[in-house]
Write a structure and sequence with these properties.
By secondary structure, the chain is α/β, with parallel strands linked by helices. Helix content is 37%, strand content 31%.
Amino acid sequence: MVAIKKFIRINEKIRVPQVRLIGPDGNQLGIMSIQRALDLASQSELDLVEVAPGVVPPVCRIIDFSKFKYDQEKKEREAKKHQKQGKLKEIRLKPNIDNHDFDTKVKQAVTFLKKKDKVKINLFFRGRQMEHLDLGRKILDKFIMDTQNDGQVEKEPNMEGRIMSFVLAPK
């Protein structure tokens, strides 16, 4: 949206022979030459702004450009305000985790998923634990099974150094 805003043509920057003109009060004035449209805009001491460049002939409007620009920015800010920014929460596990601690971590992940946040589960291996990657994989598979009602696997479990991790997204 920001890139489109930079390329709005006004007044003499409009380089087409004919335009469809909308007056300052919003009524259609019809198709006319660009010079006549510029004259009408200067008579009313406003700007000629190209509002729909993709159609033939382009639609132009006689308005105050600074007010138009302000209204566009205001609409963008309002739209941005209503967007939900999903956060990435992180849960850390170890291969020798106890059942109760595991259940607590699952409940925590489900809470995050219900709040529409993504959850990254990291399983850390230390020292000799690296020899038992299959145990870690079993823990992650059990974690996936316990959270499958509330979330879905977005990124499959994989090994990065000493950390095996995957990402859950809310359903």
